[in-house]
Recover the amino acids of this structure.
């Protein structure tokens, strides 16, 4: 007969019951299922993030490019005189009715045919330069005498600030096209006039831009703005123009920009490239438009001709 204290010791010292094999298998199955769900959700989140990142990068790049286009089209045709201070005559004008040369404190940026406003008040007149200015010397036919020190300014706009199209109806030599937009003027509002050219090459997939001082003889190297340009789905050109004639000149009064881009990488969910089309349908070059209004009202002495240097750059 066993003693009670021995029976109690045996019960207390025995092994505690654990999980059975079946219970462990069920637990592992549950853990694997939960882990699979979590991994699936994480994978989907990563794929979705990749899609969003792709589209965000694509949208950001095309938005930046169209913002630059919009700003520069709007400023096209603006005419100015460079320099940090006012331009004045450094000598008097005594002869009238004949081509006369007179000194100025700066002839920078001036060109043959440019219409300059001389003097103020009752003596103010607008004259067209008859020759290319030399160092601080201009030549024009003056109809009023002027004292030394009177101001020389410029007003109006370039009629061809957005260069009219090479195709009909403008038939402008080396003009703009559906894939090449050409414009010039004081684009940045800093007194420096430049020639800007955009080339939308859907074959190579690039939208490029070059900026050249209008006094240069060689066009600057183009820089890539977008490297993922595609053909527009509806077949429309990158650039379209609304043009209005006033005798002797065509004025581009509105530019439509349509750009289609694709993502740099395939969508991680569909393995397909995503595309986006950005359209700016009514971008008005306000300086050219104002020039057209003036010309339509028979105000011709505010319409600036294209400088010979810009004509040269068009063919480069």
């Amino acid at each position: 007969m066993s003693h009670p204290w021995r029976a109690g010791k045996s019960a207390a010292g025995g092994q505690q019951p654990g999980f059975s094999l079946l219970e462990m298998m069920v637990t592992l199955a549950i853990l694997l299922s939960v882990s699979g769900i979590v991994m699936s959700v994480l994978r989907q989140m990563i794929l979705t993030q990749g899609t969003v990142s792709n589209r965000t990068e694509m949208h950001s790049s095309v938005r930046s490019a169209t913002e630059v286009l919009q700003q520069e089209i709007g400023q096209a045709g603006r005419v100015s005189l460079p320099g940090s201070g006012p331009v004045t005559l450094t000598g008097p004008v005594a002869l009238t009715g004949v081509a006369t040369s007179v000194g100025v404190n700066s002839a920078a940026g001036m060109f043959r045919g440019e219409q300059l406003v001389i003097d103020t008040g009752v003596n103010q007149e607008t004259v067209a330069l008859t020759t290319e200015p030399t160092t601080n010397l201009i030549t024009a036919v003056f109809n009023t005498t002027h004292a030394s020190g009177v101001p020389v300014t410029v007003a109006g706009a370039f009629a061809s600030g957005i260069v009219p199209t090479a195709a009909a109806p403008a038939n402008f030599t080396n003009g703009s096209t559906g894939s090449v937009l050409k414009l010039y003027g004081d684009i940045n509002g800093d007194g420096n006039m430049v020639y800007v050219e955009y080339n939308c090459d859907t074959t190579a997939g690039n939208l490029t831009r070059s900026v050249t001082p209008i006094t240069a003889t060689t066009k600057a190297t183009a820089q890539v703005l977008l490297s993922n340009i595609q053909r527009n789905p509806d077949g429309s050109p990158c650039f379209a123009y609304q043009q209005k004639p006033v005798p002797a000149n065509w004025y581009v009064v509105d530019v439509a920009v349509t750009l289609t881009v694709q993502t740099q990488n395939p969508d991680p969910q569909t393995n397909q490239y995503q595309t986006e089309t950005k359209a700016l349908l009514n971008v008005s070059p306000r300086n050219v438009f104002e020039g057209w209004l003036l010309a339509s009202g028979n105000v011709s002495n505010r319409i600036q001709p294209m400088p010979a240097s810009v004509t040269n750059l068009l063919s480069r």
Summary: Residues 159 and 249 are 7 Å apart (CA to CA).
